Amino acid sequence: MRVASRTVFDFVRPDGSTAPVETELIYQAEDPFAVTMRFRSGGKVATWVMGRDLLAEGLGMKAGDGDVRLRPLSSRVLLLELVSDRHMTVFRLPWDTLRNFLDAAYRLVPPGSERFDADAFLSTVLR
C-alpha cells in the first residue's frame, strides 16, 4: 500500500528567481519511516529519500541538520534544502500540499505503529 501525490515545487535559483519543478511524493507502508521525493526537470529525474517525521516536524519549526532541512517561511510556504557533496538545492513548497500528503501517509500507517521487517530488508540487500 502506498500514498502518492504529484505536485509542483518552486526551485529557488541562487539569484532568488524560481522555476517550477514537477515533484512526486511517495510513501510506502513497506518502508514506513521514509518518504521518497522524485524531482523531474528537463528530462532528468533526481530522487531523494527522507524521514517522514522530519517532514512532519518541518511543518511547524526548523527540522533537519544534515542533508535534508525543512522549515516554514510563512504560514503557507515551506523551504526545503537538499544538500549533496557538490550542491545545495532549495525549493519552496506549499505548506498545505505537504500537510495533506502527510495526513494521508499517517492514515495509512499511524505514528507509533511503524514496523521494520529486518529479515525482508536483509534478503533484498543480500541478493
Give a structural overview.
The protein has helices spanning 52-58, 95-108, 118-125, and strands at residues 2-12, 18-28, 34-41, 44-51, 68-72, 77-83, 88-94. With 127 residues, the chain is α+β, with helices and mostly antiparallel strands. Strands 4-3-2-1-7-6-5 form a seven-stranded antiparallel beta sheet.
List the SSEs and their pairings.
Layout: E1 2-12, E2 18-28, E3 34-41, E4 44-51, H1 52-58, E5 68-72, E6 77-83, E7 88-94, H2 95-108, H3 118-125
Antiparallel strand pairs: 1-2, 1-7, 2-3, 3-4, 5-6, 6-7
Overview in brief:
The chain has 127 residues and is α+β, with helices and mostly antiparallel strands. The chain contains 3 helices and 7 strands.
Order of SSEs:
EEEEHEEEHH
Please outline the major beta sheet. 7 strands, antiparallel
Q: In order across it, which strands form the biggest sheet?
A: 4-3-2-1-7-6-5
Given helix and strand content, the structural type is: alpha+beta
User: What portion of the residues fall into strands of 2 or more residues?
Assistant: 35-45%
Task: Determine the N-to-C terminus distance.
Answer: 24 Å
Q: Outline the low-pLDDT stretches.
A: none
Average pLDDT, all residues: 92
Oligomer: single chain
Helix content: 10-25%
By DSSP (H or I, 4+ residues per run), the number of helices equals: 3
Calculate Rg over CA atoms.
15 Å
The rough form would be described as globular
How many strands appear in the DSSP assignment? 7
